[in-house]
Amino acid sequence: MPELILLGTGAGPGVPSFFCSCPGCREAWQKNEYSRTRSGAALKTGKRTLLIDASPDLRAQLVREKISVVDGVFLTHWHYDHYAGLGELEYYVKLERRERLPLYLPPSAVQQFNGAFPNLAEVFSLTPWRFFNGYDFDGITLTPLPANHGVETAGLLVESGGSRVAYFTDTAGLPESSAEKVRGVDLLICDATFYGENWFPESHMSVDEAIELGKKVEAKRTILTHLSIHYSRAVTSEELEEELAEHPDVDVARDGLRLELL
Predict the structure, then answer these.
(1) For a tag site, which of 10, 116, 187, 237 has the least CB within 10 Å?
(2) Which superkingdom heads the taxonomic lineage of this protein's source (predicted)?
């Protein structure tokens, strides 16, 4: 059965952060299940495993989920917390796979990749993705759709048989063209970076805004991810889960959450 694994569900600082002692971080120190590594996912088609983003925590995420084979990487955008783990795949490719790994990335990020990772040219085979173009992986289609995030950023519409899943970890609402494409999805996994005030309304959403987006696009179920926990008001995961009890179609993501695709 194909599945989508949420490798990480935290924003840039992660939870706990080494520099923070807020209630959310203290909760994660005490209960490891509330720790959050930086956001990313793995799509397992049944034959291949495709990474969606490569966070700085990638090695630990793959070890935790017992993923030993990677067949490609799809980057949503060129921000450190989403691409910095690419170097973790170098020795997998050189010592185990022994052929270059397909890397789909934003067209605007090709030059940035070459500047940041000049020694990885022999590790990855680059393919600039195109918005609204479907990419087939063993019968599962990934379609990059525009997100509102400052730099060129895609969310992904994942279609598998009867399942439609939208994955938008970094976005401030959705452009109308993307909202129409994801309308009525079975599952919307989306940016809920801030609790309380949204400090970056042009690039991220708050928990309340993410819930409203789910309603706007008529998602059957919404999962909140890319959670900072610390900002703008600190909140524990337990408190957040209790608050969301009044929203039966909304859940809080956790690292390692596995979602079956039909």
Answers:
(1) 116
(2) Bacteria
